[in-house]
Design a protein that fits this description.
The protein is α/β, with parallel strands linked by helices. The protein has helices at residues 12-23, 55-63, 90-110, 140-160, 188-200; strands spanning 3-6, 27-32, 44-48, 70-75, 115-124, 166-171, 209-212. Helices cover 35% and strands 19% of the residues. Bound molecules: NADP nicotinamide-adenine-dinucleotide phosphate. The site of NADP nicotinamide-adenine-dinucleotide phosphate has 30 residues, from helix 1.
């Protein structure tokens, strides 16, 4: 049975990813801050109490994972604080960097020993992290932190190629979750179906690509 780890697994896209992976035969390790009933299911191993900004806790979790056992790591946890130039809040920008950019890098670095050679890493980024695609401005912390995550994703793709590990930088689409106030163009199951297609198609030749869940290649 393949093994997957998913962060931000208690709601939204992360929750749906856990169930969809379990249905595909994965043993899923669900990392979250607080588990909810919706996550409870045979085949999903829940690890609550893990904030991805807490390096000590993440290191402690990583030490419990057997070396060379993980096929798929999905860094999904993220936050969005809307912000215009007039209400710029530097502390909020810093917090979004902590969660959206440093969190996934911290989790990935801590779990490198746990990944199989040939494993896959996924970073849930956002089209809002695209500099070329920014035609509306604002959202300083979110845009900047996701752009930084994209940069980290490309470096991971380059650095882990030697181990046969491929990295996908994925925008889920505009999805109806708590993050969007349940507005959007896609339900979580539609988004996750597309994300899984992208993960299936991920290999060393396309590692480091920035894709929409619908398969569109996005500009940096
Ligand atoms: N929805 C969209 O339209 C959309 C579009 C583009 C990109 N994305 C990205 O897709 C990912 C999932 O988004 P979503 O829509 O499913 O969001 P969501 O419903 O708001 O869920 C966010 C998840 O991240 C977790 N999380 C937040 N901060 C955390 C921290 N410090 N440590 C650990 N977990 C933390 C939350 O846990 P708690 O319950 O403990 O807060 C929750 O499980 C995010 O990276 C987001 O940026 C979403």
């Amino acid at each position: 049975m393949p093994n997957a780890i998913v962060t931000g697994s208690n709601r939204g896209i992360g929750l749906q990813l856990c169930h969809a992976l379990k249905d595909r035969g994965y043993t899923v390790t669900a990392l979250c801050r607080h588990a909810g009933d919706a996550l409870v299911s045979p085949g999903i191993d829940i690890h609550a109490g893990y904030d991805i900004t807490d390096g000590v806790a993440i290191e402690a979790f990583a030490r419990t994972v057997e070396p060379g056992t993980i096929d798929l790591l999905i860094n999904n946890a993220g936050i969005l604080h809307g912000m215009s130039l007039d209400d710029l809040d530097i502390e909020s920008v810093r917090q979004q960097f902590e969660v959206n950019a440093l969190g996934p890098l911290r989790v990935t670095r801590s779990l490198l020993h746990a990944l199989k050679d040939g494993a896959k890493i996924v970073l849930l980024t956002s089209r809002m992290g695209s500099i070329a695609d920014n035609d509306s401005g604002g959202s300083y912390g979110y845009r900047m932190s996701k752009a930084a995550l994209n940069a980290a994703g490309m470096s991971l793709a380059r650095d882990l190629r030697g181990r046969g590990i491929a990295v996908a930088i994925l925008h889920p689409g505009y999805v109806r979750t708590d993050m969007t106030g349940q507005s959007g163009l896609l339900d979580v199951d539609e988004s996750v179906a597309g994300l899984l297609e992208r993960i299936d198609g991920l290999n060393l030749a396309n590692s480091g690509s920035f894709w929409h869940s619908n398969g569109e290649l996005l500009p940096w």
